[in-house]
């Protein structure tokens, strides 16, 4: 079976969904963050792709395009010791509390 | 970014795509693996993404080719025209001589 991202003719040969949507603000932010991390030498396109490809099938299928980028950027930052998963989780929890 | 590493193949050569699914990052989709195609274009040599993906320098650079396939060779029961082609970029380390 092909790897999770290798979608030619898989899982079926149905027509590709070409529908577009207007970019959300968070999607623009993810794209901008990706650019900044690239400029800082903390990731390149090949590393981002490698990280996205390492997602398990269930996660890969459940995440939207820019959510995959986000998951991959987190992986690469943790891998390089820039930040820890615990630090990221703590910040997310704090932000959620601010919103509620 | 194209370098001038010596290219093993030239435009018009028939080639076969190597079969393999390494656990690491690679750019050769499975649906072309084991298939025979023709060198359409030599783009030049580029840093190897299989190294760049892990923070490596991508050297030595890999010649990158555009390979042409007949769609009827790639897909069983292909419903389009028999003259439909697929053009896809493949690095030299995935190409085999026929």
UniProtKB/TrEMBL annotation, chain B:
Stretches assigned to the Nitrile hydratase beta subunit domain: 3-96
Entries under Pfam families matching the protein: NHase_beta_C
Record-linked SUPFAM superfamilies: Electron transport accessory proteins (SSF50090)
InterPro entries in the record: CN_hydtase_beta_dom_C (IPR024690), Elect_transpt_acc-like_dom_sf (IPR008990)
Protein name: Putative Nitrile hydratase beta subunit
């Amino acid at each position: 079976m092909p790897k999770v991202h290798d979608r030619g003719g898989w899982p079926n040969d149905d027509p590709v969904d070409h529908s577009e949507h207007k970019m959300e603000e968070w999607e623009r932010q993810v794209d901008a963050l990706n650019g900044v991390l690239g400029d800082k030498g903390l990731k390149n396109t090949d590393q981002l792709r490698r990280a996205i490809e390492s997602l398990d099938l269930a996660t890969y299928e459940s995440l939207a395009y820019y959510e995959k980028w986000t998951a991959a950027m987190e992986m690469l930052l943790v891998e390089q010791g820039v930040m820890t998963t615990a630090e990221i989780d703590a910040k997310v929890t704090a932000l959620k509390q601010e919103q509620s | 970014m194209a370098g001038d590493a010596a290219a093993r193949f030239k435009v018009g050569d028939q080639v076969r795509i190597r079969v393999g699914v390494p656990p690491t990052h690679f750019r050769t989709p499975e649906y072309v693996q084991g298939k025979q195609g023709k060198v359409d274009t030599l783009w030049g040599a580029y840093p190897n993404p299989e190294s760049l993906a892990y923070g490596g320098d991508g050297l030595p650079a890999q010649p990158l080719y555009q390979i042409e396939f007949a769609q009827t060779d790639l897909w069983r029961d292909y419903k389009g025209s028999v003259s439909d082609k697929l053009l896809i970029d493949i690095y030299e380390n995935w190409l085999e001589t026929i």
